[in-house]
Amino acid sequence: MSLKYKRILLKLSGESLMGEQKFGISSEMVNYYALQIKELVKEKAEVAIVIGGGNIYRGLSTESSGIERVTGDYMGMLATCINGMALQSALETEGVYTRLITAIEMRQIAEPYIRRRAIRHLEKGRVVIFSAGTGSPYFTTDSAAALRANEINANVIFKGTRVDGIYDSDPEKNPNAIRFDNISFAKVISLGLSVMDMTAFTLCQENNLPIIVFDINKPGHLTRIAKGELIGTLVQ
What is the helix (H) or strand (E) element at residue 88, kind and residue range? Predict the structure, then answer.
């Protein structure tokens, strides 16, 4: 089966790398994601990735610690670079060519973000890992994912979560929550559902960039969705 989505931006949370741990990086989870991404690359998909940093540092919790917001946000950006390096190493162990690209220049470990170069890497079949968010404070990694996806002309954003789609209420708290297969951007806003933060969500809405929310912890889902199977929830 041919791919429905050729160029994909995969958004992963930092917390997804923790596994059963309370913080940090689980080698088991990083290796699991590397294998899922490798399977997708084998199908000739062009894959870019944005990872959060919440498993290492959560910027919004800095107010009580006395760290100012801007400093805390930069610390969070550096955490995403650590996660990016971990995923890059796991992917390259599996024989997948990657490029770690950062919005904050650190030449010894990553390339600076240059849009045309990033697109060229994708065209050559390399997995591109975008780290350090947008490079500016006050923007989440959701916003970075939406921005980079639009900049590289991605066909879709895959948002990997621990639930199997978007519900009308929290399925972990409400057993009667109703799951959507398809939902419009307008309905997500009217129902007040949290898919991405509003900056990221609006950027996708204005540029007609679909978002698919799905359970990343089910093996094979990434590739099956890329081929057009109806898994998770499609926002369009």
Answer: helix 69-93
SS3 content of the chain, % helix, strand, coil (to 5): 40, 20, 40
Residues in Cβ contact with 207 at an 8 Å cutoff, skipping those fewer than 6 apart: 150
Summarised one tens digit per residue, pLDDT across range 151-183 is 999 999 999 988 888 898 888 788 888 889 999
Is 2 among the domain residues?
A: no
Tell me the average pLDDT across 222-229. Answer: 92
Which of 85, 97, 102, 114 shows the shortest CA–CA distance to 38? 97
Give CA angle at 54 (97, 141), nearest 5°: 65
Domain count of the fold of the chain: 1
Range of 55's domain?
7-235
pLDDT-based confidence at residue 59 (cuts at 50, 70, 90): low
167 domain-assigned: yes
Predicted confidence band of residue 212 (pLDDT cuts 50, 70, 90):
very high
Give the pLDDT score at 195.
82
CA torsion sign for 94, 144, 115, 80 is: negative
For residue 206, what are its two tokens? 């204005």
- Let me know if residue 1 belongs to a domain: no
The residues with which 101 forms a beta bridge, in sequence order, are 111, 130
Tokens representing 232 are 């998770």
> Which residue is it, tokens 């309905």?
187
Asked if 85 and 75 count as a contact pair (C-beta separation under 8 A), the reply is: no
- Please report, for the domain that includes residue 215, its CATH number: 3.40.1160.10
Is 80 contained in some domain? yes
Confidence of residue 33 (pLDDT cuts 50, 70, 90): very high
Q: Would you state the pLDDT for residue 125?
A: 95
